[in-house]
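Re: the 80-residue chain
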Amino acid sequence: MCIFRPSRIKQNKLNIAAVCASMNLNATIYSGRYSVNKKPRNEIIEYLEGMVVELLKDFQNRNKCFSQKILFYHKGVSEG
């Protein structure tokens, strides 16, 4: 997952968050989701739960089973 922030100069712009997930055992097929935070400069991913649920459903539909493991990597460092 990743969150993209506007520069310090553009303080009123919204952050964009993205999440991707592997869709097969070999980790060669991926699916992704993104969302735009509603509050400017908010460093919390506001729709993380919804994006993860959508990706889990996508995995289940493709593989006819549930994912056995979920591993989160968060890219980025807070400015504050």
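The chain has one domain: 2-63.
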